[in-house]
Specification:
Sortase, Chain: A; two-stranded antiparallel sheet; eight-stranded mixed barrel; alpha+beta; single chain; 10 strands; 302 residues
Length: 302
């Protein structure tokens, strides 16, 4: 039988420093000087998450108001752009349809042509003081002139009828370089502003008839037909054709220039048979003017 021997070791408990026990701590606190008031902390408060967020974001309140103003301004701007675009579409396309539907053709206006050397007052009265602009006024189509039926008269024979001056008014313009083949409508000076023909080339009433002097034509460059949208592509020497009821006039480009709207001298009458073509350019601040001289003319085949 084995005998088990046990060895016992006596462990001494650690000595407790009197400065770390409760009594020592209490004595240390009592002996310490009272704390300064500024170093005291606020008592803890229990608040809801909403109240805590409101307190934490106190300094950012102005930024939130500014953001709200910007958001509302952005929405108003978008609405304004939509309204403006809608107005533009209605004004450009809807208004043309409404005008054509509700307005009859303009009455005939007596023919009058300026002669070279006309007085300044006469030039202002017939030509105005501004070149054509893309104005809200819409030119009326050239009216149809009905020839009254002649009663059958027994001898003596009726005298030879006087040619109708409207038969010499231009009816068609052809510009091969521009791929333009457009009807021509006579336009008039209304309240100091020249009408601009829609979907056609406008012939200025009061300027010379083709082959007689300075015949002035104008047209839109960006809207309502844009008949002169490619006028800037013309070059010196290129061909232009103007037709009346029975004659074709052949012109060649002579000069190309940009002028200010008040330079109406480009429409003044001349001794030489020319045409002057005008449209807007440079964001409507100037006018592109092309002048062409008459080369020949020939009767149209019936």
């Amino acid at each position: 039988m084995k005998h088990i021997e046990y060895e016992f070791v006596v462990v001494q408990p650690p000595t407790i420093d009197s400065t770390h026990d409760d009594l020592g701590l209490l004595q240390e606190l009592l002996a310490a000087p009272p704390p300064v008031r500024s170093s005291l902390h606020r008592p803890a408060q229990l608040r809801s998450l909403k109240e805590e967020r409101k307190t934490a974001l106190q300094g950012y309140r102005f930024r939130g108001v500014l953001d709200a103003i910007l958001v509302r301004s952005e929405r108003l701007l978008i609405v304004g752009v939509i309204i403006f675009f809608g107005y533009w579409v209605v004004n450009i396309y809807g208004r043309d349809w409404w005008y054509a539907r509700n307005n009859p053709a303009a009455p005939a206006v007596a023919w009058e042509a300026l002669a070279p050397g006309a007085s300044a007052a006469e030039l202002d009265r017939v030509l105005g003081q501004q070149l054509p602009v893309i104005a809200p006024a819409i030119s009326a189509a050239a009216p149809d002139y009905l020839v009254p039926a002649q009663a059958f008269i027994l001898p003596p024979a009726s005298p030879t009828p006087t040619p109708d001056p409207m038969s010499f008014v231009p009816k068609r313009m052809i510009v091969p370089t521009m791929e333009l083949d457009s009807p021509v409508r006579e336009v008039f000076l209304r309240d100091g502003i020249w009408e601009v023909a829609d979907y056609a080339v406008g012939y200025h009433h009061g300027t010379a008839l083709p082959g007689k002097g300075n015949s002035v034509f104008a047209g839109h460059a960006g809207i309502r037909g844009s008949v002169f949208a490619r006028l800037n592509e013309l070059q010196i020497g290129q061909d232009i054709y103007v037709e009346t009821a029975d004659t074709r006039y052949h012109y060649q480009v002579q000069t190309i220039q940009q002028v200010w709207p008040n330079q109406v001298e480009v429409m003044y009458p001349t001794e030489q048979a020319i045409i002057t073509m005008i449209t807007c350019t440079a964001w409507d601040t100037q006018r592109l003017v092309v002048k062409a001289r008459l080369i020949d003319q020939a009767a149209l085949s019936s």
